[in-house]
C-alpha cells in the first residue's frame, strides 16, 4: 500500500488572498516548481520555486498570463507564452 504523509504546508503570504495555484507542480530533488495567478489580475502569473524540504520560496518571478504550466526537459525548466 501507498502511505501519504504531509511533509509541510506553505502559506504564500501574497497580497491578494484570492490567489490560486493554477498549474501542475514539477518536483525535483532541488525544487518544487509551480505557477499561481491572482483572480483579480488576469494579466500576471507568478512562477515560483519552493525548497522541497520545507516549502520556503526560493524565487518568484512574474510571467505573462498566457504562459503555460512549467515543463521540465533535459534538466531545464520551460514556460511557453501563447498569444492568439
Structure, explained:
The chain has no helices and seven strands. It has strands at 19-21, 26-27, 32-38, 41-50, 57-64, 71-73, 76-78. The strands form two sheets. Strands 1, 2, 3, 4 and 5 form a five-stranded antiparallel beta sheet that branches. The chain has a two-stranded antiparallel sheet with strand order 6-7. β2 and β3 form a beta hairpin. It is globular and about 45 Å long.
Distinctive features:
84 residues, mainly beta, two-stranded antiparallel ribbon, 7 strands, globular
Rg result: 14 Å
Low-confidence stretches: none
- Overall shape: it is globular
Give the strand tally: 7
Number of helices: 0
β-strand percent reads 35-45%
Mean pLDDT: 79
Structural class: mainly beta
Terminal-residue CA separation: 46 Å
Secondary structure: helix percent: under 10%
Compressed to H and E, one letter per element, the order equals EEEEEEE
Major beta sheet summary: 5 strands, antiparallel
Brief synopsis:
0% of the residues lie in helices and 43% in strands.
Write the layout of secondary structure elements.
Layout: E1 19-21, E2 26-27, E3 32-38, E4 41-50, E5 57-64, E6 71-73, E7 76-78
Antiparallel strand pairs: 1-3, 2-3, 3-4, 4-5, 6-7
